[in-house]
Amino acid sequence: MVFKRSNTTPLINERGIRGKWNIYIKKYLGDASGAPSSLIPRSIVGISNAGTKQIKELFNNQAVFNNPKPTNYLSYLLSMGTESEDIVLDFFAGSCSTAHTVMQMNAEDSGMRRFILVQLPEPTEQGTTAYKQGFATIVDIGTERIRRAGKKIREENPDYEGDLGFKVFKLDSSNIRAWNPDASDLEQTLYDHVEHLVPGRSEEDVLYELLLKRGVDLATPIESRTVAGKSVYSIGYGVLIACLAPSIARGEVEELASGIISWHEELQPAADTHIFFRDSAFGDDVTKTNLAAILQQHGIHHVRSL
User: Fold this and answer.
1) Residue 64 confidence (pLDDT)
2) Same domain, 43 and 146
3) Which of 103, 142, 161, 243 has the fewest Cβ atoms surrounding its Cβ within 10 A?
């Protein structure tokens, strides 16, 4: 029981004047048996441990997360505020109940909702069920839940042909070196920036940053092929092509260009193609110029380097 200020209190003081305080009963979530029926029907929300029951069903009867939100509760809320093709954002993802809910809703009504979930990689405490099950962070729990929930939804809805996949990204610094010249030694600074990309980053790291900088949806289809021994990526059915190999020799130019051109003709992209290469991959300007010229002769005019 708590006392709080209130302008609408029914209480009066000893002088018969309306008071400024009211008495409230504070009910903790763990002690509640369900939501008040005056706000959200209990038949829809269920009881407070429904979310834990769902977690146990997915994780071999192990409660790897405390008090997760039930999917029927989230489904009720989402049905009031989203359409079938909306993107649902959750910036406190936790066990990823929201992702589970979105996938389940899509399977039920053939919707095309998508989700973006954000979660800090908070470590699980030693001795907890999650820690004993090998989950080092909350993110690990959430991503595994999405995998298992997707598998369960597929098994329970064999006729559903929607996408139950997802991608996981970890925030990091840019893959592209920032220009930070040393005024006392500009020559060395120039040598240090011959390679524009940060060492140790993978081609996929650079590729996804490229998508972000180009404003391309991260869920856009990406295909890859090996051409002249190099990995070549097609994004959005050829609207964007990237070859981020660390080296391209002069003798490989014709084979690489020919393979890219053939693939480009197969794809028949709906818009002009932009193609990107790693600038430091070219041993000299002649190699770079020859590759660009061959591509331009075949209609690929937007050739860039990183």
Assistant:
1) 96
2) yes
3) 161
